[in-house]
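Protein modeling request. Please complete all fields; requests missing the sequence field cannot be processed.
Requester role: graduate student
Desired output: 3D structure, token encoding
Chains: 1
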Amino acid sequence: QVQLVESGGGLVQPGGSLRLSCAGSGVTLDRYHIGWFRQAPGKEREGVSCISSSDGNTVYAGSVKGRFTISRDNTKNTVYLQMSSLKPEDTAVYSCAVIESPYRLCMLLPSEYDYWGQGTQVTVSS
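Delivered output (126 residues):
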């Protein structure tokens, strides 16, 4: 059974940093493209970043490029999202997700992902 568990969310002041973790169970994450998404109250789910299974290439939404970094630690079967220079508009539930098919691309469209975690809350406020 595939399970993804996010952690690391919390309350942080504007300009602060958080590192989110996506831990895999029943799945080896380095075999797949992994995406991070977020959803704020009253808004649609938004793609944040993706890391490729094949070459490690990364993709970022324009709103987070230069502030967020996605990475892997394959020894821990974990994908991270390092978030810096956080803004109030970054407040959302952050979820990680897996693209199962090796024929699909690493990109930021939620409909392309097959498995999802339950999410972790990030709140940026003073």
